[in-house]
Design brief:
This protein has an eight-stranded mixed β-sheet, with helices on both faces. Strands 11-10-9-12-13-14 form a six-stranded parallel β-sheet, sandwiched between helices. Strand 9 (200-205), helix 6 and strand 10 (228-233) form a beta-alpha-beta unit. It is built from 13 helices and 14 strands. Helices cover 39% and strands 19% of the residues. It is an alpha/beta fold.
C-alpha cells in the first residue's frame, strides 16, 4: 500500500477530539503520515502551536473566536481557511480528510486549487442544529447547508459516516460511502472496575450543551439526595448557566473540562451514564458515550427516539426514555435503580455479552480501503 501524506482539517483545537485521534492513530498504524491542521479558536494551546502525539503531527492555527457566538465567528473561520491553504501550498500532501461540514467547507475550497484526494468525515448531521431554531434566517441556513453539502459531495472521493442509518440518507448522493463508527479502542480502558461508593453515581460525560435535559436530571436528583450523586464532566456553551442553576445542589458535582487520559477514571466513578440528547438535534446518532459505556459496562439512560437509544432498548443496556415524558420516566428509572441492586448488574451482564462487537479496531479495514483507492 502506498504511503500517503494526509492533512486532517478540524475546526476545534484538538483537545484531543476522541474520534479524530483514533482515526489519525489508525492511519499512522496503517503506514500513512498524518497532520491535523486545527483551529484553536480559544488560543488554549498558544504555547504549543505544533506537537507530535503518537506519530501524529498537530499544527494549530489561532484567531480568537468564542464557541456558541454563531455568525460572529464567520470572519475568523475564513481566516483559518486562508491559513490552512497557505500552509498546504508550502507543504506536500496527497489527501485532505475533512471532519464535519465546516471542515468540508474548507477542504472543498482548498482542493479547487490543490486537486488532492478528498475525504469527508461526517460525524453528525450539522444541518439539524438549525432545524428547529426559530426565525427565517435559521431556515435559510438549514436549507443552504443541505444544498451546499450535496453540491460539494460531487467532488468528494470518499464519504465517511458514523452509522448505518446515516449511510442510507446518502446512498443516492455519495459516490463512495463507508461507515466508521465511534467505538473506543480496545486498549483505552484497561481497568473498568468501579471505585466503590455508597451512592449510585449518575454521570454525564461530554459537551455541556443540552441545558434543559441536564436541568431535569439535576432537579430529579434532589428527590434522592441521600442515595444518588450526579457528576457532570465536560465543557460547552451551557456550562456556566448549568453551574449557576445547580448552586445549592449538594449532590451534584460539575467538574468542567477533562482530557482524553481522564476517561478511564471518569467511568470508574460512574455507575450510570446519562446520555439523553434531544432527538431534534439528530435522531441518527451513535455517540462516543454509547460505545464507551458498553466497553466499561456502564448502563445507559438514553432517548428512545435516537438511533443509539433504540440499541439500548433492543439489547437491554439500560433505559430508553420517551423525551415527552422525560421527568416522569427518569424519576421512575432512578427509583428502580436505587431500589433494586440487581438491575445494574443485569444491564452490565448484557453489555458484557456484546462488548467485543463494539471496538474501534473493526473500523481499520474500512480506513485501509478508503486510502488504498
Amino acid at each position: 500500500m502506498k504511503t500517503l501524506k494526509i492533512a486532517m482539517i478540524l475546526t476545534n483545537g484538538f483537545d484531543p477530539d476522541p474520534r479524530v485521534y483514533k482515526e489519525a492513530k489508525s492511519l499512522v498504524k496503517l503506514g500513512h503520515n498524518v497532520e491535523i491542521l486545527c483551529w484553536d479558536r480559544e488560543s488554549k494551546y498558544k504555547d504549543t502551536p505544533e506537537e507530535l502525539l503518537d506519530g501524529i503531527v498537530i499544527k494549530r492555527f489561532f484567531g480568537e473566536a468564542q464557541y456558541g457566538t454563531g455568525y460572529k465567528q464567520g470572519f475568523k473561520f475564513l481566516s483559518f481557511k486562508k491559513d490552512v491553504l497557505d500552509y498546504m501550498m508550502h507543504h506536500h500532501f496527497d489527501a485532505i480528510h475533512c471532519h464535519d461540514f465546516d471542515g468540508l467547507f474548507i477542504g472543498y475550497s482548498i482542493n479547487k486549487k490543490l486537486k488532492l484526494k478528498l475525504v469527508y468525515d461526517e460525524h453528525d448531521l450539522f444541518y439539524m442544529y438549525f432545524a428547529d431554531r426559530p426565525g427565517k434566517l435559521n431556515k435559510i441556513i438549514y436549507n443552504f447547508i443541505i444544498s451546499w453539502e450535496k453540491m460539494m459531495l460531487k467532488n468528494v472521493d470518499n464519504h465517511i459516516v458514523v452509522t448505518s442509518e446515516m449511510k442510507k440518507l446518502y446512498e443516492n448522493i455519495s459516490k463512495s460511502i463507508y461507515v466508521v463508527t465511534n467505538a473506543p479502542s480496545k486498549d483505552i480502558f484497561r481497568d473498568i472496575a468501579k471505585t466503590p461508593s455508597n451512592k449510585l453515581r449518575i454521570g454525564y460525560i461530554g459537551s455541556v450543551r443540552y441545558l434543559e435535559e441536564l436541568k431535569i436530571l439535576a432537579d430529579i436528583s434532589q428527590k434522592f439526595e441521600e442515595k444518588i450523586e450526579v457528576i457532570i464532566s465536560g465543557r460547552g456553551i451551557a456550562l456556566d448557566e448549568l453551574k449557576e442553576y445547580c448552586k445549592g445542589y449538594d449532590n451534584i458535582k460539575i467538574t468542567g473540562a477533562y482530557s482524553f487520559s481522564d476517561l478511564e477514571n471518569l467511568y470508574k466513578n460512574t455507575d450510570i451514564t446519562y446520555a439523553f440528547y434531544p432527538s431534534r438535534i439528530s435522531s441518527i446518532s451513535m455517540p462516543n458515550k454509547f460505545y464507551e459505556s458498553i466497553i466499561t459496562e456502564t448502563p445507559i439512560i438514553a432517548n428512545k427516539f435516537m438511533e443509539f437509544g433504540r440499541e439500548v432498548e433492543k439489547h437491554k443496556l439500560g433505559y430508553a426514555i420517551d423525551e415527552e415524558n422525560l421527568e416522569l420516566d427518569l424519576e421512575k428509572a432512578i427509583l428502580e435503580l436505587i431500589s433494586d441492586d440487581s438491575k445494574v448488574e443485569y444491564f452490565k451482564n448484557q453489555m458484557k455479552a456484546i462488548k467485543e462487537d463494539y471496538l474501534w479496531e473493526a473500523n481499520e479495514r474500512r480506513l485501509s480501503e478508503i486510502y488504498s483507492k
